[in-house]
Design brief:
By secondary structure, this protein is an alpha/beta fold. It is 48% helix and 12% strand. The chain folds into 2 domains: 290 residues, Rossmann fold; 185 residues, 3-Layer(aba) Sandwich (Rossmann fold). A 7-stranded parallel β-sheet has the order 3-2-1-4-5-6-7, sandwiched between helices. Its main location: endoplasmic reticulum.
Length: 501
């Protein structure tokens, strides 16, 4: 025992010396950064942890909209993005943001810290224990980030809550996050416990009592430490009510047995880093910004009998359910075959695994006897996607527990009537009544989807036009850039980095 105490004391002393050295060097690094940007006066640095900042997706729109807003309204703030996009320059990223999102960024108050170990947070690096591996990998990235530059405030905008410990340990700074999707949720634990097969719970595990118990223990441990990480934050934002409800549940999560066991591990020292810290009791909903300006100009009349799906070809999007719903529809209402009805699936394919998934979906369409009425468009150019949005009648989404659903907002803004799964953001935040009237439809079973397809395609011109117009009006005014910026600024981040604080 004595030897162990000596070893711990030595390790603590060496770590403390290392941390003090990093913080001392950081003062010079900040001064160098300000000189490089040509900045003067009392400036504060806000760091955004976003290893895939150049990906061009909805999460990146959140990042760049927040930074652009900060640049317009907070001239004394410097934005630093911790990015693993080492194959792109600062100028190239700024130009892509302009081209992809029509967001203007000033290079004068924007800086990038390049992370060389991004592969440690990729799925391929962790074929087993992926959640744990990626979380540990994110901590390595955060260590790399803090060694390069410690900001005055650290904000995670990608979902890597375990990085909070590193930012607090090395920087002694407040941390916060915009949460798109909780890394683990109570739903995931429930599915493993009930041995329900899912894209996060394979048949091999769900069919085995021993493997299910092992995975449940793994998830239980992970949930415990994920909750500990979120509690380190000074503020939390969530992109939907579904995400907020899960984050709030995690913040309140208790495990008495693990509490006891935790006190007998060196990890208990993490609590000393934030002595006196008040953990957030809940997350604040800040809906992501959706650029609907061009889509909102599309005509609402003379739409073709096209059922459109816009979603990456990832397993959780459940394209199989879309094919089965469409097969049920044409079987129950065969008259629509003669009217030229078509299911069009537009989506991104990231890698060989996604490409193989598309091939299997084509095979399923053939097996169901609907291949003549189904079209797959993989990695479509943005203008082609807009073209389909301008002439489709129905927008389809079958993902269960979609945390938000920017594609559904885009359907509505474009005048495409949404038919979505009755869960998550689409149910609670997006496809909701406006002025007491519906803006779309929800379903769970293939039969329900099919009946909603029939309802939309059988509407009178007047009823159809009213529904499209109502859905557009709601989407455009509720999920605008202005609403996002208002929510972002009301989250409380400013008080943690106030100039002169």
């Amino acid at each position: 025992m004595f030897t162990l105490l000596v070893a711990l004391a030595t390790a603590f002393y060496l770590l403390r010396r290392y941390v003090l050295g990093i913080r001392t060097l950081n003062n010079a690094r900040k001064e160098s950064l300000l000189r490089e940007l040509g900045a003067s006066g009392d400036k504060r640095v806000v760091g955004f942890f976003h290893p895939y900042c150049n990906a061009g997706g909805g999460g990146e729109r959140v990042l760049w909209t927040a930074i652009a807003s900060m640049q317009r309204t907070e001239p004394n703030m410097i934005s630093v993005v911790y990015s693993g996009d080492i194959d792109a320059s600062k100028e190239e990223i700024i130009q892509k943001v302009k081209t992809r999102f029509d967001i203007e960024l000033s290079p004068n108050t924007l800086h990038f810290v390049w992370l060389r170990k991004r592969h440690l947070v990729e799925d391929a690096a962790w074929p087993r224990f992926t959640l744990l591996g990626q979380s540990l990998g994110s901590m390595v990235l955060a260590w790399e980030a803090m060694n390069a530059l410690i900001p005055d405030l650290f904000i995670d905008t990608m979902g890597y809550a375990f990085t909070f410990h590193i930012a607090i340990l090395l920087g002694g700074i407040p941390v916060g996050a915009y949460v798109h999707y909780p890394t683990i949720s109570t739903d995931m634990l429930a599915r493993v416990k009930s041995r329900k097969a899912w894209h996060t719970n394979s048949d091999a595990i769900s069919s085995s009592s021993v493997l299910s118990q092992g995975k449940l223990l793994y998830y239980r441990l992970f949930m415990y430490y994920y909750a500990q990480s979120l509690r380190c934050a000074s503020f939390l934002m969530a992109n939907s009510s579904w995400t907020k409800n899960h984050v709030d549940a995690i913040l309140c999560h208790e495990d008495k047995l693990l509490d006891v066991l935790h006190t007998f591990t060196p990890l208990v020292l993490l609590r000393l880093l934030q002595f006196g810290h008040v953990s957030p009791k809940e997350a604040k909903i800040v809906y992501p910004p959706c650029d609907t300006r061009e889509m909102a100009t599309f005509g609402l009349e003379k739409r073709g009998p096209i059922i459109l799906s816009v979603a990456q070809f990832r397993p959780e999007k459940d394209h199989k359910a879309q094919l089965r719903a469409f097969e049920t529809f044409v079987r129950k209402y065969p008259q629509f075959k003669e009217k030229g009805v078509k299911l069009v699936l537009i989506g991104g394919s990231r890698n060989a695994e996604d490409a193989a998934r598309v091939d299997r979906l084509r095979g399923l369409a053939k097996e169901l006897g609907i291949e003549a009425y189904v079209e797959f468009i993989v990695n479509a150019p943005y203008p082609e996607m807009l073209q389909y949005l301008s002439r489709s009648s129905i927008g389809l989404s079958t993902m269960v527990d979609e945390h938000f659903g920017i594609n559904i907002v885009e359907y509505m803004a474009a005048g495409v009537i949404p038919v979505t799964h009755a869960s998550g953001g689409p149910l609670n935040d997006i496809v909701v009544p406006f002025n007491g009237k519906p803006t779309g439809f929800h379903a769970i079973s293939a039969d329900e989807y099919a009946d909603h397809f029939h309802t939309v395609l059988s509407m009178s011109s007047e009823e159809e036009l009213e529904l499209r117009s109502r859905a557009r009006t709601w989407a455009v005014q509720r999920f605008s850039n202005e609403e996002f910026e208002k929510g972002w600024n009301e989250s409380g981040w400013k008080k943690w980095v106030a100039v002169g604080a």
